[in-house]
Amino acid sequence: MRNRTGKLFLLVLTTVVFAACGGRGESTVGEGRITVAALESAYGSALWKEVTQAFSAKTGIEVELVIDRNIEDVIAPGMQAGDFPDVVHLATGRERALTETMIKEGALEPLADMLEMVIPGENVRVRDKIAGGFLESSLTNPYSDRKTYLAPMFYSPCGLFYNANLLEQKGWDLPSTWDEMWELGDKARAEGIALFAYPTAGYFDAFFYALLYVVGGTDFFDRATTFTEGIWETEEARIVFDIIETLASYTERSVPSNANSANFTRNQQLVLDNKAIFMPNGTWVTGEMRDAPRADGFEWGLTGLPALEAGGDSYSYTWFEQAWIPAGARNKDAAKTFLAYLYSDEAAAIFARSSAYQPIVGLGDMLEGENSLFYSIYDGGTKAALGAFATTVPVEGVTVYDTFFAPVDSLVNGSRTREMWVNQIKRNSDLLRAALK
């Protein structure tokens, strides 16, 4: 019953979207006032109230703020009647899938001119302020037409965490290429230190996605994550599995036995005890291990995955939210001015007080301590890896996790060969491709 109701909602919304797009020029509402609909998430509501007030003070554009934990339920009736908010902050991945519906129906306003705008109160274009990689993803460019329709919002970076003090004490350089990574692995092994550990195989999602970008960029990532026929027989795929197989040989042997929900912190502890150098993780790891013992002088470090060769691209995976303008919005120029303002230092500082961080260049300079380190990862040339495997209808006995991530344990402990794993990926990709939504 719930699925049928959801489909009915999508049908009604779709009809209204196109009706609204056709008649939006008839509005008598002026450009000096906009309606902003925002999800009240764990960050709370105060940040939106403060940032909209600051925007109005700077631009003279009034903002009617609509904020709710279930913002879809609040704005859907008006949208069905052709009354669209001018700006919506609502990411993909929500149960109601409102943002996905708008994407599928071509009901979002393109943001190319917004990206060329100078940020209110500053002297820099929006495009130049947004960190590298965020505008090169299917999460912002959903139609593969090189046009941005969703603006990247609050984000959380992942990458390789390590003890910066260990490298400094040993005189070891942070590797910028995979060849340098293997050289470091040999040096560490000679001193009884593993190059790599991971909490659980599930943490290979962010690692795997970033590696796809490192090896083949956005095009290879998009083809791989949509299970394109023959993709796992390409040269790029060979390099991906070369790297993972080699990395498995440098991984601390005890990791697979503790790679579960009960004991994963033991694997994280390896880095704190200088028994392993790198582990893939997210910014939450410092909180998880806050009270754990650690080597003298321990200092968190975070880096992206190394490039294939000198001068190549390094990538760090990130999760982020999105904001967008409905194609049926009545005050688009003012709405784009508002979106542009969200990337200002002023707005970023307001958001940051609630631990909501914008993907802008120089954000790390506004933060303190570990957050300054973590959220400046994209300031030094590392690019953001974004996206995930495409959604499919359920396939009996086949999941993305079991296909692409879980086998890492078996590769490390030697119970499965690379060839066995790749053959499984090829078989399952055929099944998943046939089940694409």
UniProtKB/TrEMBL annotation:
<keyword id="KW-0732">Signal</keyword>
<feature type="signal peptide">
    <location>
        <begin position="1"/>
        <end position="19"/>
    </location>
</feature>
<dbReference type="InterPro" id="IPR022387">
    <property type="entry name" value="Bind_CPR0540"/>
</dbReference>
<dbReference type="GO" id="GO:0042597">
    <property type="term" value="C:periplasmic space"/>
</dbReference>
<dbReference type="InterPro" id="IPR006059">
    <property type="entry name" value="SBP"/>
</dbReference>
<dbReference type="InterPro" id="IPR050490">
    <property type="entry name" value="Bact_solute-bd_prot1"/>
</dbReference>
<comment type="similarity">
    <text>Belongs to the bacterial solute-binding protein 1 family.</text>
</comment>
<dbReference type="Pfam" id="PF01547">
    <property type="entry name" value="SBP_bac_1"/>
</dbReference>
<protein>
    <submittedName>
        <fullName>Carbohydrate ABC transporter substrate-binding protein</fullName>
    </submittedName>
</protein>
